[in-house]
Automatic annotation (TrEMBL):
This is Dirigent protein. GO terms for cellular component: apoplast. Keywords: Apoplast, Secreted. PANTHER family: NUCLEOPORIN-RELATED. Homodimer. InterPro entries: Allene_oxi_cyc_Dirigent (IPR044859), Dirigent (IPR004265). GO terms for biological process: phenylpropanoid biosynthetic process. Dirigent proteins impart stereoselectivity on the phenoxy radical-coupling reaction, yielding optically active lignans from two molecules of coniferyl alcohol in the biosynthesis of lignans, flavonolignans, and alkaloids and thus plays a central role in plant secondary metabolism. Pfam families: Dirigent (PF03018). It is found in: Secreted, Extracellular space, Apoplast. The lineage of its organism: Eukaryota, Viridiplantae, Streptophyta, Embryophyta, Tracheophyta. Its main location: secreted. Belongs to the plant dirigent protein family.
Length: 195
């Protein structure tokens, strides 16, 4: 079977590739409507800034990080090379653990550097409160463990953040010397196509 596609260029230089598909399920109506209206949109972007804290609990009763796999070299690696973990971090309005919850960061990361403790992350931010409840943002990139600063790319989103892009800036707010549990401060700068 050979698939063909059509490339159409609309206003503002947007390209749409249409491809036949054999799926019996159709694209959800709200996505079709949004995408079809893309041609009518102005090139304006909606810029949104977020500021919140992540409760990164690697141990204790509120643990949010769990090992799911290791490479054969992980036990002998000073940088935990090959360890893969899943996370479900609490997002809060303030640095305190009992601050109002605003969402969750869920996803996976892998320690993948032979020369320092660094990880590649694939995380989704799920907003659970406020006007963005139910919407998500997807973060990808590299972080150095226990570094003071870090930066991740915002590569997409759902709900109110469809086709979002931007940057997430991380600062370590505090680290418990015994448990290694951390509070990380995040500032997100998100650009979404205008409605």
């Amino acid at each position: 079977m050979v698939l063909t596609f059509t490339l159409s260029t609309f206003a503002h230089g947007r390209n749409v590739i249409t491809m036949p598909h054999s799926s019996e399920t159709e694209t959800p109506t709200y996505v079709q409507k949004w995408f079809m209206n893309a041609n009518n949109r102005q090139s304006e972007e909606t810029l949104t800034e977020f500021h919140f804290f992540i409760q990164d609990q690697i141990s204790g009763p509120n643990q949010t990080v769990f090992n799911v796999a290791e490479a054969s070299v992980t036990p002998n690696s000073p940088y935990f090379f090959g360890r893969t973990q899943v996370v479900d971090h609490l997002m809060t309005a303030g640095p305190e653990f009992d601050s109002p919850q605003v969402g969750r960061i869920q996803g996976i990361h892998a320690l993948d550097d032979l020369h320092e403790t660094a990880l590649t992350v694939n995380w989704n931010i799920l907003f659970t409160e406020g006007p963005y409840e139910g919407s998500t943002l997807t973060l990808l990139g590299r972080l150095v463990a226990y570094a003071t600063d870090g930066e991740l790319s915002i590569v997409s989103g759902t709900g109110k953040f469809m086709l979002a892009r931007g940057v997430a800036l991380k600062k370590t707010y505090s680290t418990d010397a015994v448990t290694k549990n951390m509070v990380m401060e995040y500032r997100l700068y998100v650009s979404t196509p205008g409605a």
